[in-house]
Specification:
Elements: H1 5-34, H2 39-66, H3 69-86, H4 93-121, H5 127-139, H6 145-156, H7 158-178, H8 180-183, H9 191-198
Helix pairs in contact: 1-3, 1-5, 1-6, 1-7, 2-4, 3-4, 3-7, 6-7
């Protein structure tokens, strides 16, 4: 599986994106708490993200079926990189909540496209192992985000910590945009024929 360029790009970029996104969310939480913002108001940020994700889930299947997956995935990564980059400069809690909700809208469709592609390329006998590796890449680096956020705020301040977490998300977006294999992925009804033509589709039992 690893020799397939599409899989490599998707997993590496997911790792970088989740590190930056998780770090940004944790540093926002810690920074707002340090500034004396009410815990209930801070909690509403996660509510905004969840509400956006619920709304996005309603249309995710339709988007994946109609929009070329390469465009959808790249747009999601670029949007996430943009949100992480501008959060330190937003004027208030409401603006941050709006950005969280916006990200929530695109997350379900991007997840569906990424995991759908990886699953389709995975032989039946490797499903468990590939699923474990995918989960490791998606969550492994992000596990260090809370510690990095706390250390960063203590050492270099809230704003610079936030900007630092924008670096991996921007790198993920650039790598995704630069990948010809990802850019060419069509909408889900055409995945199988595209992967067969590109030689990336494994025979399934």
């Amino acid at each position: 599986m690893w020799e397939r360029a599409v899989v490599r790009v998707l997993l590496i970029c997911a790792c970088l994106l989740n590190l930056g996104w998780a770090g940004m969310m944790m540093s926002v939480t810690l920074g707002l708490a340090d500034r004396g913002v009410e815990p209930a108001l801070i909690g509403l940020l996660a509510t905004a993200l969840g509400c956006g994700a619920l709304a996005g889930a309603v249309v995710a299947a339709r988007l994946v079926a109609r929009v070329p997956s390469g465009i959808l995935i790249i747009a999601g990564f670029l949007m996430c990189a943009g949100v992480v980059a501008i959060v330190p400069f937003l004027p208030g809690l409401g603006w941050i909540g709006a950005m969280y909700a916006l990200m929530g809208l695109i997350i379900p469709a991007v997840n569906a496209a990424v995991m759908g592609l990886v699953t389709l390329m995975t032989p039946n006998e490797l499903m468990g192992r590939v699923g474990s590796v995918s989960q490791f890449f998606a969550s492994g680096a992000a596990a260090f985000a809370p510690a990095l956020a706390g250390w960063g705020i203590g050492m270099i301040g809230w704003e610079l910590t936030q900007i630092s977490f924008a670096i991996p998300t921007a790198l993920a977006a650039v790598l995704m945009l630069a990948s010809r294999q990802v850019r060419q992925v069509p909408a889900s009804p055409h995945w199988e024929s595209y992967l067969e033509e590109s030689g990336a589709l494994s025979a399934r039992d």
